[in-house]
Amino acid sequence: MPQLELAGLSGDRVVVSDIQVDQLASNLRGQLLREGDTGYDEARTIWNAMIDKRPALIARCAGAGDVKHAVEFARQNRLVVSVRGGGHNIAGNAVCDRGLMIDLSLMKSVQVDPQKRTAQVEPGVTLGEFDQQAQLHGLATPLGINSTTGVAGLTLGGGFGWLTRKYGLTVDNLLSADVITADGAFRRATASENADLFWGIRGGGGNFGIVTRFEYKLHPVGPEVFAGLLVYPHDQAKSVLRRYREFTRQAPHDLTVWVVLRKAPPLPFLPESIHGKEVLVLPVFFLGDAKAGQKAIRPLEEFAPLVGKHVGAMPYTAFQQAFDPLLTPGARNYWKSHDFDELNDEAIEKTVEYSGKFPSPHTEIFIGQIGGRMNTVPGDATAYPHRNVNYVMNVHGRWDDPADDQRCISWAREFFQAVAPYSLGSVYVNFMTADEQDRVEAAYGKNYDRLVALKQKYDPGNLFCRNQNIKPGVLRAR
User: Fold this and answer.
1) Cα–Cα distance between 400 and 362 in angstroms, integer?
2) Hey, which of 133, 150, 284, 389 has its CA 20 to 30 A from 7?
3) pLDDT of residue 326
4) Cα separation, 66 vs 50, whole angstroms
5) What CATH number has the domain spanning 224-431?
6) Which pTM value belongs to this model?
7) For residues 319 and 222, is the Cβ–Cβ distance under 8 A?
8) For residues 379 and 445, what is the distance between their CA atoms, to the nearest angstrom?
9) How distant, in Å, are the alpha carbons of 24, 228, 329, 363 from that of 276?
């Protein structure tokens, strides 16, 4: 009898017959792809070019029913499973070798209720697709900064961006979710129904099931905001960062200012003499009109002589896409990340030192100013625990040639170690790479043991293990 060999959860090989595979295919409204099928390579290709894995089967789901069938097939056969939403995760958890990949990227519905200010969103939706529909009504919810990121993975890890200081994390704005758990059951999760599961999916990653629908609270935003970039020469970076630290301590929640250190791209508002040279950029975002926004950022313009400025009123959707050209798919990416409550002088010294020796033109260090509204939520209110964080640093190695892997990864690791003593020791789970399983406890902090108990309840067999994995029954080291 013709058969197919797949990777099993226990590290073994599982043999399924072609009859079983055909039965799964017939149960799906979407497609079931094998290696060699048209569309297979496209479906397994994700944003980070360092990830090159080949699932034995790819279930391209068209709805929640397809997800349920795929989960049941995986559970019954004890198969390795990966789950793809937007395919943007740095660790590449969307794809597995020789297992079953459950692909949600075809599930694209966004339904906005402008009266209730809510949105029902399927897990294949990207930030740009969400924003486009919500902004038709002048509404938005806190999301990330790259429009091609998937809403599902971003939300499950916590989610932060330009609106976080005003309206909190993405998970602080999640009202409900539909979840297919490891037993194949459909569960609605809200503050009053399966409340423990609702708590866990708000920051616990994909450990507890597959979300097939998210319901978000929306807020009046735009359609225009005041935003843009202030660019300073690298030789002023230390002074600018110190003044930035003092400024952001008192900044209103309507204003968000991030930091990007990188080699200057050939942007039209920058002089050619600075192209390819190290610079410090302050991306600014203000929820309000241009006059108030200009007043709010005026002190920033006095930090040091500017080598470039591009700020003004613009559509919210435009600024949400502003960094897309720097984060296109197909490059090789390796990240490391730290949380900070304060940027002390030593951390600034190391940041400036390492930003003077980037290993590639596309590598960068960014510091996301968050805090604000998200800091007012108790640390145990959601699975995301780090409510004391004011800045998230992403050490973002990015390059094109595989021959540069060792050099670029080494730089990222060295800088990460150099600033570690000045960080909080915690980490944002969505910025963790595949080799950081030892930081999972740091990602969840005091909530970790509660998450282990939740994992034991909803996924005792660890079917959903291709993630920053919370292992059932394995409590925090004391």
Assistant:
1) 9
2) 150
3) 85
4) 29
5) 3.40.462.20
6) 0.95
7) no
8) 9
9) 52, 20, 21, 12
**What is the third-level CATH fold of 110-220?**
3.30.465
Per-domain boundaries in the chain: 3-103, 110-220, 224-431
Residue with tokens 């799964």: 24
User: Tokens 């971003």 belong to which residue?
Assistant: 154
Q: CB–CB of 179/212 below 8 Å?
A: yes
Cα(108)–Cα(289) distance, rounded to whole angstroms? 33
User: Taking a C-beta distance cutoff of 8 angstroms, is the pair 38, 60 a contact?
Assistant: no
Asked if residues 209 and 458 have their Cβ atoms less than 8 Å apart, the reply is yes
User: In terms of Cα–Cα distance, which of 129, 397, 88, 145 is closest to 283?
Assistant: 145
Residues 58-89: pLDDT tens digits?
Answer: 999 999 999 999 999 999 999 999 999 999 99
Are the C-beta atoms of residues 258 and 368 closer than 8 Å to each other?
Answer: yes
End-to-end CA distance of the chain: 52
Are 212 and 114 in contact, with CB atoms under 8 Å apart? no
Return phi, psi of residue 43, to 5°: -70, -30
Question: Which CATH class, in words, describes the domain spanning 3-103?
Answer: alpha beta
What span, in angstroms and rounded, lies between the C-alpha atoms of 364 and 146? Answer: 15
- Measure the CA–CA gap between 219 and 223, rounded to whole angstroms: 12
State the Cα–Cα distance between residues 198 and 178, nearest whole angstrom: 10
**CA–CA distance, 98 with 182 (Å, rounded to integer):** 20
Amino acid symbol at 250:
Q
Is the dihedral angle over the CA atoms 4, 123, 42, 403 positive or is it negative?
Answer: negative
Band of residue 475 on the pLDDT scale cut at 50, 70, 90:
low
Q: List strands edge to edge, sheet with 31-34.
A: 31-34, 57-60, 100-103, 81-84
Q: In sequence order, what DSSP letters do the residues of 113-163 get, joined into one string?
A: ETTTTEEEE-TT-BHHHHHHHHHTTTEE----S-TTSBHHHHHHH----TT
Length of the chain: 478
Tens digit of each residue's pLDDT (9 = 90 or more) over 120-150: 999 999 999 999 999 999 999 999 999 999 9
∠144-147-151 over CA atoms, to 5°?
60
